[in-house]
Amino acid sequence: GAGVSQSPSNKVTEKGKDVELRCDPISGHTALYWYRQSLGQGLEFLIYFQGNSAPDKSGLPSDRFSAERTGGSVSTLTIQRTQQEDSAVYLCASSLQLAGGPEQFFGPGTRLTVL
Amino acid sequence: AQSVTQLDSQVPVFEEAPVELRCNYSSSVSVYLFWYVQYPNQGLQLLLKYLSGSTLVESINGFEAEFNKSQTSFHLRKPSVHISDTAEYFCAVLDSNYQLIWGAGTKLIIKP
Fold first, then answer.
1. What is the pLDDT of residues B55-64, one digit of tens each?
2. Could A42 and B105 be called an inter-chain contact, meaning their C-beta atoms sit closer than 8 Å?
């Protein structure tokens, strides 16, 4: 079936504007993750959704960042009042976990550039 | 807290030479280990994984990794690299909350 998809693939915005990044996980995957990858750096965990449980927001860098997952499927990551340091590639991943195996499947990412 | 250390940020190697990318982890729980690869301008792809069973795991493109519990390592090896192996390689361990703890990545640079 289809893999994880993310939109837009590229987003250029001005400092201070809000942006929304979308993730469509693999159908049936119960877990969904958001990561940030800044230039030349590794992955930084942002937030994790698992089924109907409360999300683990421990990785969100500030209160300007929020995410929701509607109907246990599509997720939106929102960054308010963007800053230049928010420029990065935002990656979404999903997994089945438990019986399905713990490996995460990644989308192609959204490259965010804040001018 | 669990952590993953990739000691080398870059590894340059000549084409057709062998390579080892090092990964050490700290974990107090059952260990699930992964290597992901990120080719230039592409997303992350699972290269291989250790969940249980044989400590030597292999990928379809000639890479292998060995889980060594006593040394808490999961080094990635390939006996002969190609230009197409140029990529960044990330080691990760799954924690008790089913979250991946990531290493900082190692850039594999193939010299012709």
1. 899 998 899 9
2. yes
